[in-house]
Design goal:
two-stranded antiparallel ribbon; 40% helix; 7 helices; alpha+beta
Length: 183
Amino acid sequence: MNPNHRFQRLETRGLVRLTTEPDDVYTWEDIKGDTYDPIVNDDIDPAELRRQEQAELQRMQQDGVYGLVGEFNLHGSWHRADSIWGFIGNDWQGSGYDDDIRNATVRALRDAITARCRCCHGTGTTVRAAHHQQRPPSPRNPTTSTRPPAVAAHCASLCESQPDDSDPDLTDNDEAHAGQDPP
C-alpha cells in the first residue's frame, strides 16, 4: 500500500495530521548556505547568482519560513512524532521530506498503540494471540500461566497482526482502539 494512502486513511479518521508552524529561528544565512557563493558556484555568473539570491530572499520575506510537523492523536490529545524546519512557503510539498514525516508519524502512532498493551508493553512489535493468552513467568509467579480470557481478548484486539491490504505497519484494528485503555 502506498504510504501516502495509508497516512490519508489515518488522517480521515482523525488519528494523524501534518501541520506547518512558522519557523522563527531560521535566518536568511541559515537558508542560503553557500548556494549563492560565486567561489563555490564558479560555473554561474556572479551577477546571476546575486539576482537569484535577491529573488529568493524576497520570496522568503513574502512567503515566510515554516516547519513541517507530523502529529498523531492518542486519547484525544495530539503528540508530535517528527518535524523538519526551514522551508520557504510551501516548498515542503513534494520535497520527499513530507513523505518521511508521514511515515514517521504512522510508525509513532503504531508504536504508541502497541506500547499501551499490557501484554506486549515496550516490545515495539506486533505479536500473535498466543502471546496474549500466556503470562510470562514473574518473581511473584515463577510459572507460565493463562491470562483471564477478557484480558487476553482485549490485548489481542489491540495488537494482533491482521494486515490491511498487505500493510504490516498499522492495522485497522489498532486504529479502532487508539482511544481506548486496556481493561
